Amino acid sequence: MSDENAQQPGQQFALQRIYVKDLSFETPAGVEAFRQAWKPRVNLDMNTRQTRVDEQNFEVVLTLSVTATQDDKTAFIAEVQQAGIFTVAGVPEPQMRQVLATVCPNILFPYAREAIDSLVIRGSFPPIMLAPVNFDALYVQALKQAQEKAQVEATGAPN
Question: Which residues contact 148 (CB under 8 A, 6 or more apart)?
């Protein structure tokens, strides 16, 4: 770990609680989903959001939505909102945004992945093993896109 990433005196980061905020599973195709060879097209949508609870605590919610379709029919939709309460104190604003957008979702992701897998199996479908996600790379990509958008808006150039 580099010195610049090391925790500075007065900085605090702690996980207070992990919990499921919302959980759902749907099989719109019903029994038809089980009457053919299982060769689905699987789509993963992912989102995070952060809410300040008080001066030092934040709720971070990682939402994973998995949709499996087969022959243009939706076999199942599994969604979990995996949440955590994190204490983050003494961290400057830019780094705090990064911690909330990368470190917290990295902690929540294995719990959300397990919840999705469990839902799918309970729905009588083969397991869905979601690949790990690089939240740091997603954060850098989102920053770059925001900078490019701001630059385009500042210069008045069309999209």
Answer: none
- Using the predicted structure, report yes or no on whether residue 2 has a pLDDT greater than 70: no
In whole angstroms, what is the distance from residue 141 CA to residue 46 CA? 15
Across the range 130-159, mean pLDDT stands at: 84
Sorted by sequence, the CB contacts under 8 Å of residue 36 that are 6+ apart come out as 70, 71
Domains and CATH numbers, the chain: 16-134 (3.10.420.10)
> pLDDT by residue (tens digit) across 65-123?
999 999 889 999 999 999 999 999 999 988 999 999 999 999 999 999 999 999 999 99
Task: Write a three-state SS string for the chain.
Answer: CCHHHCCCCCCEEEEEEEEEEEEEEECCCHHHHHCCCCCCEEEEEEEEEEEECCCCEEEEEEEEEEEEEECCEEEEEEEEEEEEEEEEECCCHHHHHHHHHHHHHHHHHHHHHHHHHHHHHHCCCCCCCCCCCCHHHHHHHHHHHHHHHHHHHHHCCCC
